[in-house]
Amino acid sequence: MAGRENKENATPTAQLVAHMTSKMRRRMGLTQAQLGDRIGFSGAAVSGVETCAQPASDQMLVKLEETIGGELGFFEEARVYMRIEKYPPQFKNYALLEREALNLYLFATPVIHGLFQTEDYARALIAGGFPILPEERVEELVEARMARKEIFERDPTALIELVLDEAVLLRPIGSRNIMRDQLRSLAKCARRRNVTIQVLPLDSALSGEYAGGRGTLTVVETSEHQHLAYLEPQDESLLISDPAKVSTYMQRYARIRAQALDPRESLGLIERLAGDQ
């Protein structure tokens, strides 16, 4: 039943991957079973990809690139678009911008920003949300979210600033172990040379001022040095390019950052909450 539904709803990229897998496999004189052996999957899994009954996973695309990709780099490029097609509709336009961003300025509340989530944290968050999603869809979204982490290792390097509301660090998602591992992962990220993490404390010493009251905020600087603001309220999305509006969002982000603990203090707080101090 799922295979038939996948065939009927196959995305353009999945259809192109199906065609190219079959074409390049045949060019190399391989059966589906033989190709499966080479890439570490079953012949049935290869058949599933070629008939669109089961779209190729990111891991399979990596193996296909290594085995039959040749000089085209097709499967490597397909990874990007397969991933984007798995995202919720409201996120797809932003996903391409994030992938190519020169700088990212992020304020996260009420949960850890997606770029910084561990796999277990993301799975607990997505599976526990509403509407309730099938397990297969949960795993698709987790895989797509984890793939976004490529930006941390990208060349040229992206510079990423993250301000976290302290409440995010105190809100338990999943189990105690999941939260501990998430906090340790944040601390590890904070030590990256291209990442700055600050915490906006609950007990602000600034006369009770709080600049983050309007929620999560993302400002992107593109490779052309254009600044864009991205907002995602209640499963909707707004990508804002108007310079005057973006300027206001940038100033708001600057105010949030000014009220946050400095990076060293923030790292210490994260480590204490993880139980590592």
Are there runs of 5+ residues with pLDDT below 50, and where?
none
Could you describe the largest sheet, including whether it forms a barrel? 6 strands, mixed
Number of strands: 6
Order of helices and strands: HHHHHHHEHHEHHEEEEHH
- Sum up the overall morphology in one term: elongated
Helix and strand content put the structural class at alpha/beta
Fraction of residues in H or I helices? 40-55%
Spatial strand sequence of the major β-sheet = 3-2-1-4-5-6
- If you compute it from the alpha carbons, what radius of gyration comes out, rounded to the nearest whole angstrom? 21 Å
**Overall residue-averaged pLDDT value:** 92
Q: What is the overall number of helices?
A: 13
**How many angstroms separate the termini?**
52 Å
Strand content: 5-15%
Could you walk me through the main structural features you see in this protein, from its secondary elements to its overall organization?
It is built from 13 helices and six strands. With 277 residues, it is an alpha/beta fold. The protein has a six-stranded mixed beta sheet, with helices on both faces. The longest helix is centred in the C-terminal third of the chain and has 17 residues. 31% of the residues are buried. The mean pLDDT is 92.
